[in-house]
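FAQ: What does the model actually see?

It sees only this:
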Amino acid sequence: MAEDTITTRFNSRPDSRLDSRFARFGWSNRLSLTSRILAVNVLPLALLGGGIFYLDGYRKQLLDERYKLARIEAQITAEALAGATRQRQEALLIQIGKEQRMRLRMFDAEGMLWADSFALDTPAFTFDDPVAEPWDQDFARMLDRAVDTIVGADPIPDYVEPAEARADSWPELARARAQGLSQIQLRDAPDGTPVINAAVPVGLKGSTLLTTRNAVDITESVRSARSTLVSAVFLALLVSIALSLFMARTIVRPLQLLAKAAIRVRLGRDRQVEVPRLPQRHDEIGLLARAISDMTNALRQRIDAVDHFAADVAHEIKNPLASLRSAIESLARVEDPELRRQLTDIASHDVRRIDRLVTEIADASRIDAELSRAVFEEMDLARLTAAIINSRESRGENEGREIELKTPMSGAWVWGVPTRLERVIENLLDNAVSFSPPGETISVTISHDHDLVCLNVCDNGPGIPEDAREKVFQRFHSLRPDAEAFGDHSGLGLAIARTIAEAHDGSLIAQGREEGGDGACLVLRLPELVRH
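And it is asked to produce this:
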């Protein structure tokens, strides 16, 4: 895609086996640890909580159905009693009470009790005494109260026989007498089972009927369902424990392997320690394994680089030191003034060379640490490059070479450390000036390439052989022009420039000129900063 540019001319004059162990876990490796932990812990709790609310709804449903049945039974009984004689009414109270296991009481218009099925015949039911019941019934009642508390059930009054056998002693009877409609009232028996009272008017003379039923079957049904729930929760707990053990195996085991590998790497006893990467795992453990493996490889590469760098430093400094020592030792034995001057020049040159080497080596060794602490900022690479070229021209560092700069009109914004990127550009221009013949033009082009900013520095020198384009970035590797004095460059410039570029998430490469011909191009690529 074509791009508007600004052209400026600057003139200057003179381990896989460990990984396979976890492949069989399949689906588990695709779930995050958070998901697995939540699933293991929530499963029994969700089942228990859902079961408790289900039981509460189930109990309410049973009671609602029993309320309807009690209302219908009381109304049918009242209709049967309304047209009967007193003797027939007593017979009906006894018969219905026995058949339906209820207690039936009749009150006259003044609210006085005149017939009780329990007094007329043997009681159809009796309340169980909680004191005489076994411990499991006490435990069941305790669970009943706990469930009522959890679901926030309304309190139910206890069933207590009033001291006076009058209709006004029963609230449901009082309402039925006042409203002329059937009324239902729920109470708790001493053993915790529900007692359902139904009050209904009888005939037109003000009599009322009170039916009492101890719905033990409701409590038994709810407790039976709760036993099933407890069994299900217990099973869920067993499953949760099994899943916890499985999860511990899939989490703790790889962590132990990673810890052992990290300890061996730290101790340095085994150069070829294999840190498992666990490629089949896409959860946090897999990310950790791959991060530790990458960190270990980077650490090994850094150690190797330090070892090689130390060896290269010793080699590079040893040569000028040997030359310096030879010149100084010879100087004491030489009487010829011209020869003494030459030896002095050699010694001075070697001292400058050693000083330059020490400076470059110190800069190269601390550049990584400095960049890790540096604060990156927004900067226009085009403006920075133009300023550097102008400064070089004013200092006469371009040595008669003309530098042509092409930049995009919109600028070239990147994140970076200006002083360090300035060092990169200076090194690239120094390299181009060294290889370009006097009077030739050095081309500097800044362009956009998708989400990258590219800076190309192209000279008209002999170029770089294709097999040597990567070697020029090695430390102390130097292919200098024949006319350049030996030792004027340390061989660290391009190595430092690449280190800075990579610290900015960029790259620095060498290539031939796109249009062909002699010369080389050094290309710096940095991530583009999108400005809003």
